[in-house]
Design brief:
This protein is of the alpha+beta class and 297 residues long. It folds into 2 domains: 158 residues, no CATH class; 121 residues, OB fold (Dihydrolipoamide Acetyltransferase, E2P) (Beta Barrel). The chain has 9 helices and 12 strands. Strands 7-6-5-9-8 form a 5-stranded antiparallel β-sheet. Helix 2 packs across helix 7, helix 4 packs antiparallel against helix 5 and helix 5 packs across helix 7. The protein is elongated, with a radius of gyration of 29 Å.
Length: 297
Amino acid sequence: MQIRQHLKQSFNYLDAPKSRWLYIVSTIVFAQLFLLIFQPYGLAAEIESPDNPLLHKFLFFFSIALSTFIALSLSQFYFRKVFDIQGISVKKYVVWLLFEALILLLVNFGMSFIVPDLGNDFEKELNLWFQLKMYPKLLMILIFPFLGSVIYVAIKRLQTEVKDLDEQRLTFKHKYHNTQQQDTLNLLDENKQLELALPVNQLLYIESSNQYVVVHFIKSNTLKKHIVRNRLKHVLAQTNGMPIKQSHRSFAVNLIHVKRLVRKNGKTFLALNTSPDDVNIPVSKSFLEKIKQALNH
């Protein structure tokens, strides 16, 4: 079920031209290294054969690089535009990757008419079955640099996201520096009775627990907590105009104390600046964008 949901997610890692060039160049480099190091498909014997001069060997590797460059350039910058392959799902891009391997196969076949194969077995290459056997090998060569490019782009995006959020946090904290000492948070219970009053700058986060909320705050440099009988959504309604935002269905944080955005085991957290150790509050994807917008205002 999780695999199906992942396949339905939007795939936009190779939408930017810079990311596409990264994929193309990394594929060319990977293909050359793969052939030179492992020398598969009988390539080792053909390289060592005295019947193949150095020029033919150079032209062979050059033709592999050139055909890879032409095929992926056509795929990424021409055919993707023609077939509107932009902002599609992961599932559809997997299909496109299969099509991309077919483009590479056809370009490699065309290149063999220009640059002779080291084994001088051109008639063998004209065989349909030979070409079909080459398809999974070309697909394998594409998969590794493809995954590497996606992971690299994902990491760079995360680093940019963390940097942007940190800059927003500093701006936000400076904005509230002069007012946070004056604002007072009055929390009412479900009967509209005052349960807790404290300066906004002392509040760290609020945690929901069924019919109750646990208010975590700092007083006299000591972490404390207070239980209020009320639901989180009703408590948040009492914080309008204050730097307190929901980050998860069970948590709300005081953005004044946000130190940084962290990722652990594929999950996102807001690290709150507390002593001696930071407190990590979970952030759901549905609330992350709202928190960014709040920090940016």
